[in-house]
Amino acid sequence: MSTNVVVFGFGAILILVAIIGGGFELKEFKVPKVGWAPRLLAGVAGLVFVVWGAGMSSSSAEIPQVKASSTQEQITPAEKPVEFTIYDQLGQDRLSEQVTVLIDGKIMGQLTADNDNPRSMLTVTVPHHGGYSYMIDATKVVNVGGTLYRYAGTGQGTIQVEDHKKFELVESSTSYPWMISIMEQSELQKSQ
In the chain, pLDDT over 70 holds for what percent of residues? Predict the structure, then answer.
């Protein structure tokens, strides 16, 4: 039973005593007969308790109940998109290279390098910094002794992305199929 119900009920009993003057029984609660002074005092006290109980009822309805939680929600600020760049340099004895880059399964664009434009650049935007998987689908045209050959290339892996980071396409093998990976420029410079 809530506190406001108890206070309101007690006030109602006091008002009943003031009106009837006592001499009644409620279950196991017996109220003796009282004179006019105690009846007056019971009436005033009863009104105070009834108003107080009613006031508690309406004020508790206005106060929103806060539910305690055993786990605290972690609020993180929305991350802004991250932009990074991938470069491709036309390889030796090649007439052209065309590379399609997929990040997390989505086509991000194509790099095309040829004799007129030996260095190609692709700017990629992803939702946030962190690790991303990549796939590469490529073709190259090579001139061997005056004969042109077309080779297919492929590659896959993961990269750690941060804003304005620079990556290079690196040929991992010269065998068939042609294997390509994406390597961070700073790591590539360390290995050379």
Answer: 82
